[in-house]
């Protein structure tokens, strides 16, 4: 009974909380995945984007009415992923939106890079446009 309870709790608890990736761990992940200089942007740009889009939370979710944003990069269901609820979804990343909310962010990274590649930068993300573009972002990577 105790082992059943433990397994139940282990499966039930992570669902809502999400993994908050520590700042310097996120810097390492971005560096390891080739974000420095990608589409003319720095790791600091991406860190600022992630901070303002999801606050480093892998399970971040935002309902915009006709579409929704999912995961650490807040990837939108109208163009990039399929959540089964967004009318006319393009699903350009060929992924279920729910996959963008698990703790494995490899698929999130692939999709975010596709978005940035197609836009030739980070302008699709309002969190970046409104809080990061044209600013000194060195504090996002300092000490990492």
From TrEMBL:
It catalyses: Hydrolysis of (1->4)-beta-linkages between N-acetylmuramic acid and N-acetyl-D-glucosamine residues in a peptidoglycan and between N-acetyl-D-glucosamine residues in chitodextrins. Its EC number is 3.2.1.17. It is found in: Secreted. Pfam families: Lys. PANTHER family: LYSOZYME C. One of its GO terms (cellular component) is extracellular region. This is lysozyme. The keyword Secreted applies. InterPro entries: Glyco_hydro_22, Glyco_hydro_22_CS, Glyco_hydro_22_lys, Lysozyme-like_dom_sf. Residues 1-18 form the signal peptide. Belongs to the glycosyl hydrolase 22 family. Residues 93-111 form the Glycosyl hydrolases family 22 (GH22) domain. GO terms for molecular function: lysozyme activity. Gene3D superfamilies: 1.10.530.10. It comes from Scytalopus superciliaris. GO terms for biological process: cell wall macromolecule catabolic process; defense response to bacterium; killing of cells of another organism. Keywords: Antimicrobial, Bacteriolytic enzyme, Disulfide bond, Glycosidase, Hydrolase, Secreted, Signal. The lineage of its organism: Eukaryota, Metazoa, Chordata, Craniata, Vertebrata. Its main location: secreted.
């Amino acid at each position: 009974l105790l082992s059943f309870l433990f397994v139940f709790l282990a499966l039930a608890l992570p669902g809502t909380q999400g993994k908050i990736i520590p700042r310097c761990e996120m810097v390492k992940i971005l560096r390891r995945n080739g974000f420095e200089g990608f589409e003319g942007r720095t790791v600091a740009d991406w860190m600022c984007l992630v901070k303002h889009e999801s606050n480093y939370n892998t399970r971040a979710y935002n309902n915009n009415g006709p579409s929704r944003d999912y995961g650490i990069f807040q990837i939108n269901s109208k163009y990039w992923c399929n959540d089964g609820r967004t009318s006319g979804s393009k699903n350009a990343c060929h992924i279920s939106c729910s996959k963008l909310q698990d703790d494995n962010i490899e698929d999130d990274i692939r999709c975010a890079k596709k978005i940035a590649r197609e836009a030739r930068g980070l302008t699709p993300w309002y969190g970046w446009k409104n809080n990061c573009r044209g600013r000194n972002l060195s504090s996002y990577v300092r000490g990492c």
